[in-house]
What we know:
The structure is a homodimer. The first copy, chain A, is of the alpha/beta class. The first copy, chain A, contains eight helices and 14 strands.
Amino acid sequence: MKKFVNDPKMYVPDMLKGLALANPDTLRYVPKYNLIMRAGGPNPNKVSIIQGSGSGHEPAHVMTVGKGMLDAACPGDVFAAPPMDYVYETTKLMASPKGVLLLVNNYTGDRMAFEMAQEMAESDGITVKTLFIDDDVAVQDSTWTVGRRGVAGNFFVMKAVGAASEAGASLDELVRIGEKVDSVTRTMGIALTSCTPPAKGSPLFDLGEDEIEVGVGIHGEPGRRRAKLTTADEMTDEMLDAVVNDLPFVEGDRVALMINGLGGTPISELYILYGHAHDELTRRGITVGRSYVGEYCTSLDMAGASLTLVRLDDEIEGLLAAPAEIAAHVF
Amino acid sequence: MKKFVNDPKMYVPDMLKGLALANPDTLRYVPKYNLIMRAGGPNPNKVSIIQGSGSGHEPAHVMTVGKGMLDAACPGDVFAAPPMDYVYETTKLMASPKGVLLLVNNYTGDRMAFEMAQEMAESDGITVKTLFIDDDVAVQDSTWTVGRRGVAGNFFVMKAVGAASEAGASLDELVRIGEKVDSVTRTMGIALTSCTPPAKGSPLFDLGEDEIEVGVGIHGEPGRRRAKLTTADEMTDEMLDAVVNDLPFVEGDRVALMINGLGGTPISELYILYGHAHDELTRRGITVGRSYVGEYCTSLDMAGASLTLVRLDDEIEGLLAAPAEIAAHVF
């Protein structure tokens, strides 16, 4: 394992400590509950939005805390759901009179932690709603999932409800918006390599020198099939066909197009995928209204990418265009 | 080689095409000269700033074209200087009555291309100045360099002169600012793995399973020495000591601290390096005034990182804090 790591057990705390030190004006790290929150704490004039999941998907979600996106993130250890009591404590810390919205990618462990935390917080008199994200078209059930998995498309749900909450939307309104965005968001990924969890110290699964995993999950879960490595264009087509045919997206649609890097793939390659996807969408009469190329939801150091489409309407496009100030990228 | 690539010869054009398609309102791609420019062309009220270098360092420099940073980027093929006539054509296209500033990382091939292009443009009556960046403390001369190499610290020069040019600074003033920033900027990198140029199809150099290259160049050039892989904290100390002792940075200094990923290292690991570097600087009485963690200047898919410090004064800090709107990261 060739990584910048000290004690693998300290991988997540070391990262969170660095993240907070780099953003002293905007973020606070609470080691006791492994959480990252906005420095100012809950804002009584807006719904607090919290997302949690296993770590190893950075910038999701700890680096997307900030104005216009999350109010707090509650990460677990690498690829592990956060402990239920940490989610509960985060919810209490971020309680707002307008309520708390919990965003959860659809994995069984995460659902369990967040649903129990919601019950506990509600019995304390906090108004809480939970919204599950399941944008991955690759497989119906998977290693750790009943139903579809939540992957990089969670960005669009976070961004939309984050923008609406800054504008004062109610908790019910945020649930409506979040569910709407999730319902028109579809993703599919391809892994070129495995990833190496620090505590394991070796690759999570084996892929041959000329093999790819089509429809890979963000924890290295199996996808639809193993295939031979082929050209960037052909791999783009594979992801695009799966995504377009699922909703389906049709001629006349206006979409957001995201090419998300899985951690080990350079941004140069992501733009190669983007260019072909844009051409193919245009050929199908689908207009790309907004573009996202970079790392949004990763799998540690996995080489690979995912492609996400969101069907836009005026409401969604307006929320996606709203400003956000987050730590993920500083220029 | 496991990459998203079509014909390796088309790696750079395919990427640039995607970049321009993803940013139709702000960027224009001119295939004939392999250049990326602001969609609006040269602005007669500001000096035009152009940076060029080999490709493979993305987001540098093609993804840092935009308001507050570059007016155009003139990339070569992967790890190859741009052709002199392309630099000349870019300079002509971007000619402004206020002049043109060429930013060049200090490599012999790049210097040659830019210096000849400057002469040709000057004989056309265009006012041009060239500024060389050489922030890498690792080695004095190297494979393709006389003197020190220009690496990730070039970001700070781009950002400072970009901000000043938006505010209307003259060409001479930009040269003064750029030289000043370069003179207080120091960088050192460590490679955990090699990188694989698409046209070569195999790793550029060999590193043993437990070996690192201390002081690696951004084209895989040798650094100071091979060493054994050790902890994140120890590798941070190695980079920090080299950088701090070089200028030197001393107690009472206020600095910008950048941890730059070399392409294959996830951002989670970069924050681990950041946290320890911040602690160590604090211990030495050096204040971190601005923080940058992410990918700024990469080496394709190399796993590794570099650490940059910039000694801040009010002028530099103000320029670094100015807004910029670039394609590199969209949130």
